[in-house]
TrEMBL record:
Biased composition (Basic and acidic residues): 619-631
Domain STAS: 534-743
Gene3D superfamilies documented for this protein: STAS domain (3.30.750.24)
PANTHER family in the cross-refs: SULFATE TRANSPORTER (PTHR11814)
UniProt-recorded name of the protein: Solute carrier family 26 member 6 isoform X4
Organism the protein comes from: Enhydra lutris kenyoni (northern sea otter)
Chief location category: membrane
């Protein structure tokens, strides 16, 4: 019956004219309730302590159901593959897998060069990790595999720990490329294992939230700087130069200077090859952008360019006739697994953690974008484990660390990919190429791969447009972007990331140290209080000062909060307190001088010493066996008692004197309300600061109240022993309006006064 009436009312409201519906929405509301402090609110609402849930206890429970749940949790393919709709999704996943594989082939070859490794290891890294992610990943649309940023980070490691200078041989000081490449592969695979261990470990302890410390401006500034690093690293292949291996701070600057100095030695054939390949790739991409609505799958520009360049190189003899460097022999088949080298762990652990965090940040950010677009959820901890297993198992099979590629992910989504099956299909195509077709690309010029890498940097280099947009929207985010970019360019990828994270965290602390402090006024005819500097109609309540901070109060800004409060109140609190204490000290010293003078008078009249205690009254004086002086002692004692008593009354009057009686200026308000709605937690420094505020303002005859504390904050105040005989929960009110009304009705009175019923 109730449901039918409710539905009838909804139908009636739906038939109302628009103007009447707006009037209903805009109608004033009236709430009549008693004025409430915290103690009354807890009694009315029956506040109880929140029950704690110890989730870690379930981790050690062992049962068949829990084992099955864990298996399905960390091997998601077991849960979604049996329900896979073949008729609806298989064709799209097959086309998407083929499209991604066509892109993966040239990118794998090119990004292996970027990592300082033979090109075939880029193909290995495009097969093993992709298939592992198919089993353990939760994102249905990202394309895991080689990525420019990850490759350049790996390249900085291999070139710093295995530079060409360490493998010179013979009289002509030629580089032993076989030994160099073997050691670099060992470095990269061991690095991949360490990266995988970090990611799996962090995922198992549910540490996926660590990526939240990498804000979007930080990630975009970092990837933009990394794209500049990638661009500079490919110049040696574009111009056919032999450059020195550099790493560490300012290595990018030195590399650019060296390229500029060696430009006269450029190989013309390599420059022409790179230029022509780049123009062809750009034209094909523009053609894809215009015809993507009419094409079932994008035109494979990179693959067509690689095939054409390989054929031309083989037919014309670019290496022998024009000195253009080529890929060389690509062994067919797969390499056997190899254990990582434990001796390298100590030198690689720092790089591994940085690469693990960056790789996961890129993957989870893209994964969440596609998940929101298609209406499913990506678990950051499961993604961390899946990506870690991909790198861990891939490292055992001679792969270097991988993440996901935005360009391939967009192609996978746009060509009809629906699930991780598209990734499995692309990995199988790469396997066929590794086993049968890889050796056909031995005459592929490295300049063509460099051109493909540079053209694919377009998306990341376009992030420079963030600078004007952030200048208009948020200059703090712009500062993070610029610091990240400059630090990464000048100090290399690992140190640059560390500086960027530290700077962004310090900036958060700095912003909480300097929040916006406001004096609030009441918006007319409402119970709403807003900043009088922003709302011209908001008026301060006479006799009551309402103060609010936009940030939580803790050890880093507690002193600044107190200083801002005293400044905004318009009263020099510290000056008044010091003047009052100075006057009281003068009165105390005057009383002591009077007491000493009186003691001397008594001693002179008696000819003996009299012990007198002057704090509260005169002790009984001993006579030193002079019987005939008792009468005079009694008379002098009476005189001293009268004088001391009058002095004590003066001191008592001084201690209870008002500022007006002391001739000091009085505050123009009698009550102070602290709006603590912004507090999310309190610490010991915050509690001490609040107590000092109560003490100082009471010294100048201003009563202090608090308002709008959240329940967790109240619990922390209780645990910190904030409430005592002088500060009770009756000083804490449910809202600012409650506190203001109470202060108006009870200026400088006890908070235990009767409750006032008010209409809001």
């Amino acid at each position: 019956m109730g449901q039918s009436e409710a539905s009838g009312r909804r139908d009636t409201q739906a038939l109302l004219p628009v103007t009447q519906a707006m009037e209903l929405r805009n109608r004033d509301y009236h709430v009549e309730r008693p004025l409430m402090n915290q103690q009354q609110l807890e009694e009315l609402g029956h506040r109880t302590s929140a029950t704690r849930t110890y989730q870690w206890r379930t981790w050690f429970q062992c049962s068949r159901a829990r084992a099955r749940a864990l298996l399905f949790q960390y091997v998601p393919v077991l849960s979604w593959l049996p329900r896979y709709p073949l008729r609806d999704w298989l064709l799209g996943d097959l086309l998407a897998g083929l499209s991604v594989a066509i892109m993966q082939l040239p990118q794998g070859l090119a990004y292996a060069l970027l990592a300082g490794l033979p090109p075939v290891f880029g193909l290995y890294s495009s097969f093993y990790p992709v298939f592992v992610y198919f089993l353990f990943g939760t994102s249905r649309h990202i394309s895991v595999g080689t990525f420019a940023v990850m490759s350049v980070m790996v390249g900085s490691v291999t070139e710093s720990l295995a530079p060409d200078e360490n493998f010179l041989q013979g009289v002509n000081a030629t580089v032993d490329e076989v030994a160099r490449d073997h050691f670099r592969v060992q470095l990269a695979s061991t690095l991949s294992v360490l990266v995988g261990l970090f990611q799996v470990g962090l995922g198992l302890v549910r540490f996926g939230f660590v990526v939240t410390y990498l804000s979007e401006p930080l990630v975009r500034g970092y990837t933009t700087a990394a794209s500049v690093q990638v661009f500079v690293s490919q110049l040696k292949y574009v111009f056919g130069l032999q450059l020195s291996s550099r790493s560490g701070p300012l290595s990018l600057i030195y590399t650019v200077l060296e390229v500029c100095s060696l430009l006269p030695q450029s190989v013309v054939g390599a420059v022409v090859t790179a230029l022509v390949s780049g123009v062809v790739l750009v034209l094909l991409k523009l053609l894809n952008d215009k015809l993507h609505r009419y094409l079932p799958m994008p035109i494979p520009g990179e693959l067509l360019t690689l095939i054409g360049a390989t054929g031309i190189s083989y037919g014309v003899g670019l290496k022998s006739r024009f000195g253009v460097d080529v890929v060389g022999d690509i062994p067919a088949g797969l390499v056997p697994p190899a254990a990582p080298s434990p001796q390298l762990f100590a030198s690689l652990v720092g790089y591994a953690f940085t690469i693990a965090v960056v790789g996961f940040a890129i993957a989870i950010s893209l994964g969440k974008i596609f998940a929101l677009r298609h209406g499913y959820r990506v678990d950051s901890n499961k993604e961390l484990v899946a990506l870690g297993l991909s790198n861990l198992i891939g490292g055992i099979f001679q792969c270097f660390p991988v993440s996901c590629s935005m360009s391939r992910s967009l192609v996978q989504e746009g060509s009809g990919g629906n699930t991780q099956v598209a990734g499995a299909v692309s990995s199988l195509f790469i396997l066929i190429i590794i086993v049968k077709l890889g050796e056909l690309f031995r005459d592929l010029p490295k300049a063509v791969l460099a051109a493909a890498i540079i053209v694919n940097l377009k998306g990341m280099l376009k992030q420079f447009t963030d600078i004007p947009s952030l200048w208009k929207s948020n200059r703090m985010d712009l500062l993070i972007w610029l610091v990240t970019f400059v630090a990464t360019i000048l100090l290399n990828l690992d140190i640059g990331l560390a500086i960027a994270v530290v700077f962004s965290l310090l900036l958060v602390v700095f912003r909480t140290q300097l929040p916006r402090y406001s004096v609030l006024g009441q918006v007319p005819d409402t119970d709403i209080y807003q900043d009088v500097a922003e709302y011209s109609e908001a008026r301060e309540v006479p006799g009551v000062k309402v103060f609010r901070s936009s940030a939580t109060l803790y050890f880093a800004n507690a002193e600044l909060y107190s200083d801002a409060l005293k400044k905004r109140c318009g009263v020099d609190v510290d000056h008044l307190i010091s003047k009052k204490k100075k006057w009281l000290r003068k009165q105390e010293q005057k009383l002591k001088r009077m007491q000493k003078t009186l003691q001397k008078q008594i001693a002179a009249s008696e000819g003996t010493s009299v012990s007198v205690q002057v704090n509260t009254n005169i002790r009984d004086m001993e006579s030193n066996n002079v019987d005939d002086s008792k009468a005079r002692q009694a008379s002098a004692g009476k005189e001293l008692e009268d004088t001391t008593g009058s002095g004590q009354e003066d001191a008592k009057a001084a201690n209870g004197s008002t500022l007006k009686a002391l001739g000091l200026p009085q505050p123009h308000f009698h009550s102070l309300v602290l709006d603590l709605g912004a507090l999310s937690f309190v610490d010991t420094v915050c509690i001490k600061s609040l107590k000092n505020i109560f003490r100082d303002f009471r010294e100048i005859e201003v009563e202090v109240y608090m308002a709008a504390c959240h329940a967790p904050v109240v619990s922390q105040l209780e645990a910190g022993h904030f409430f005592d005989a002088s500060i009770t929960k009756q000083h804490l009110f449910a809202s600012v309006h409650d506190a203001v009304l109470f202060a108006l009705q009870h200026p400088r009175s006890s908070p235990a006064s009767p409750v006032l019923t008010t209409k809001l």
